[in-house]
Amino acid sequence: MLATLLGHHRTTLDTIPRALEIYDSIRQPFATKVAERSRLNGHYFSFHGMDCDSSHQSEEVLRDKLQSLAGTFTRNWEWCWSTSVDGSMKEAINLLECS
To answer: What is the band of 49 on the pLDDT scale with cuts at 50, 70, 90?
Structure first.
């Protein structure tokens, strides 16, 4: 997206700050969410905050906790296969062309 905005015919030395502003306003919220999900998965991968002591819990309880955790991992990665940059790209180009 950044390369497309900077290479757009409406981007000149004078409009580079606007192109960067558009890029930041569209991509930063998405990137922040991805970073937060990655941070959370890091905690989950290390079982941070989870009571997984098998001496105090049945195998079934532990299995249920791990299955729940697997669902959480999947939800945190869902953006990989459920999102596309296409809509954001169109929005960014439209904002640039209307500037």
So the answer is: low
Handedness of CA 8, 28, 25, 13 (dihedral sign): negative
Q: Does residue 18 register a pLDDT over 90?
A: yes
Cα(48)–Cα(18) distance, integer angstroms: 42
What does the domain layout of the chain look like in residue ranges?
A: 2-49+57-81
The DSSP-derived string for 32-96 is HHHHHHHHHHHHHHTTTT----TTTS-HHHHHHHHHHHHHHHHHHHTHHHH--SHHHHHHHHHHH
* DSSP label at residue 3: H
Q: Provide the residue type at 4 as one letter.
A: T
pLDDT, residue 21, reads 97
Residue 53 confidence (pLDDT): 62
Name the one residue in this structure whose structure tokens are 């079982």: 47
